[in-house]
Write a structure and sequence with these properties.
This protein is mainly alpha-helical and 153 residues long. 69% of the residues lie in helices and 9% in strands. The chain contains 5 helices and 3 strands. Strand 1 and strand 2 form a beta hairpin. Helix 1 packs antiparallel against helix 2, helix 1 packs antiparallel against helix 5 and helix 2 runs antiparallel to helix 3. The two termini are 17 Å apart.
Length: 153
């Protein structure tokens, strides 16, 4: 359960990092896009207002919901008495974690899903290789193990 939540938070922080690395536009509510030859749309620039709104209305609520789900899920699993109930509760928590993608796939029109799949934030390749960039996935594992250890004890 903790690794699933850590993956959710990691995905949110990676999206935020890509967005913040975009070059800024001049002012206002602006996003610059380029359509490529293969039909995908690449977001190349975003204004500070757009970046701020994404942080406030998308990233922070996703991370906050993940932290609350982590806390409540750990409480629920630790209160479970039998092994079979733990397995069933893990399945139920996994369903709750995947509920947003289930709703997205069933409620959103197909055209919007295709547009979202074909829209990318341009990757900034100026990130120099370093020990941190190669090992930061292990940091998420260490944080998950530390959380479980601190929660249990």
């Amino acid at each position: 359960w903790t690794l699933g939540i850590a993956g959710e938070i990691k995905g949110s922080t990676q999206q935020l990092e890509k967005l913040l690395r975009l070059q800024a536009t001049r002012r206002g509510f602006a996003v610059n896009c380029q359509e490529t030859e293969d039909g995908t749309v690449q977001i190349t620039h975003a204004s500070g207002l757009v970046k701020g709104m994404v942080v406030v209305f998308i990233t922070l609520p996703r991370v906050a919901a993940a932290v609350v789900l982590l806390w409540l899920g750990c409480r629920w699993l630790s209160a479970t008495e039998s092994f079979t109930d733990v397995v069933l509760n893990c399945l139920a928590l996994g369903f709750i974690l995947d509920l947003n993608s289930l709703l997205y796939r069933t409620v959103m029109p197909r055209r919007n899903i295709v547009d979202a799949q074909n829209t990318y934030v341009v990757k900034n390749l100026r990130m120099p290789p370093s020990y941190f960039h190669y090992s930061r996935d292990l940091i998420w594992l260490a944080l998950a193990v530390a959380w479980v250890s601190l929660y249990v004890f």
